[in-house]
Amino acid sequence: MRLSRTTKYLLLAALVLGLAVIYFPLLVVLLNSFNADTTFGWPPSSFTLEWWERAAENEGALNALGTSVQAGLAATAIALVLGTMAAFALQKYRFFGRNQVSLLIILPIALPGIVTGIALNNAFRTILGIDLGLFTAIVAHATFCIVVVFNNVVARLRRMGGNLEEASMDLGADGLTTFRLVTFPMLRSALLAGGLLAFALSFDEIIVTTFTLGTGLETLPIWILNNLFRPNQAPIVNVVAAVLILASTVPVYLAQRLSGDTTSGGRL
Fold first, then answer.
1. Which parts of the sequence belong to the ABC transmembrane type-1 domain (predicted)?
2. Which residue has the higher pLDDT, 266 or 150?
3. Has residue 218 got a pLDDT over 70?
4. 8 A C-beta contact, residue 241 and residue 29
5. What is the CA radius of gyration of the chain?
């Protein structure tokens, strides 16, 4: 399809406008993390690294960062195991209710976070009698992190087909050997991409975390929310927000590159 020059310019202008709406506020946050003016006057008259130094020494932010990393890594580990097993079960086998099970696996990421948070809070406290803490937050994060791992693995299994695995079995390899030498190498990049996306999703989550983390603990997003309107903490909040931007962008970028690797069979 050939487009006129006017149409191309209009499409380019719409693209630039859309990207500006999304990324200009993020750029402002990054610049304000170096802004020497505590009132964040715009444009910045001078820049400083003081806020980064103070953020590196802020005990509350560091503790919140540690909690976020622990929750993200644990939730990602659970999601990798359960999401991969679910993907194999639904892709490799045909059984009654298969489509309904697939819907149930994907549903948690589509539900409003506040609904998921309230439901899990009630389940932990009322039904199971578990006190809210880091463990309950990890379980809560895993419920939606499983979805991104499941989607990545299912997509890779569909592209792989079953010919190579069948050939391996025909040549005398058992199921474990076939998985180790044939299936897993081709799934490796999909698993890594799903793990990176799951970690980024867990690291940024705030609504479900609010209902399942309990008192006395904060993740980094919750720490930002609690300190956002405190004047003496505002510069440090900008630094932490800038770190969050970078921490979210890198895993998503790597996951996009890895999940788009179709020519090498997922080889890293």
1. 65-255
2. 150
3. yes
4. yes
5. 23
- Residues 81 and 86: their CA atoms lie apart, in Å, by 9
Write the pLDDT tens digit of every residue in 60-96. 888 998 999 999 999 999 999 999 999 888 887 888 8
For residues 222 and 202, what is the distance between their CA atoms, to the nearest angstrom?
A: 12
Asked if pLDDT for residue 264 goes beyond 50, the answer is no
Whole-angstrom distance, CA of residue 193 vs CA of residue 256: 7
Q: Match 């505002």 to its residue by tokens.
A: 234
Predicted TM-score of the model (pTM): 0.79
* Tens digits of residue pLDDT in 158-177: 887 777 777 877 777 777 77
> What mean pLDDT comes out for the span 246-256?
75
Q: d(Cα 221, Cα 64) in Å, to the nearest integer? A: 8
Residue 133 has, within 13 A of its CA and on its CB side, a CA count of 4
pLDDT at 147 over 70: yes
The answer to whether 68 and 81 are in contact (CB under 8 A) is no
DSSP class of residue 93 equals -
State both tokens at 41.
Answer: 């006057």
Across residues 123-149, what is the average pLDDT? Answer: 91
Q: How far apart are CA 183 and CA 146, in angstroms?
A: 20
Look up residue 45 and give its amino acid: S
The string over 175-211, giving b where at least 16 C-beta atoms fall within 10 Å of a residue's C-beta and e elsewhere, is eeebbeebbeebbbbbbbbbbbbbbbbbbbbeebbbb
